[in-house]
Amino acid sequence: MSLEQKVNDSIKDAMKARDQVALRALRAIKSEILLFNTSGSGKTLDQAGEIKILQKMIKQRADSLALYEQEGREDLASKEREEIEVIKPFLPTQLSEDDLKEIIQGVIFKTGAQSMKDMGKVMGMASKEVQGKADNKKIAEIVKILLQT
Questions:
Q1: pTM higher than the cut 0.85
Q2: What is the chain's percent helix, strand, coil content, to nearest 5?
Q3: Same-domain pairing of 101 and 86
Q4: By residue range, what is the domain housing residue 59?
Q5: CA distance 101 to 111
């Protein structure tokens, strides 16, 4: 089942339950999917594209959340937290830090990376391998640690 279909089904369920928080977040996802489909790029939305959209939405909300918390706007911060919690279940199960380290070590071995100069090469390959199962920020942290040792 595509992300769009899952979101549409979830919207119906949220409407029946009168869950305004879920409705707000689900409609935002639906809006992003619609924007992609009508962008005129000629591309179809595949699973990797769906994951990118969801990750981007979570990152935007996390950035806003940090800003709102810094400014002391708990009312707005709570909305962002709620939306993140509604969006997260649509992403694939996230890898544990140990599993992620193992994958990245394999990528470092495959690429022959030896220093921070090779970080871009490792990041590109690692991002493709985990495909949405880990945050790029977390991948970058682990790559830095492993390349510095």
A1: no
A2: 80, 0, 20
A3: no
A4: 3-90
A5: 15
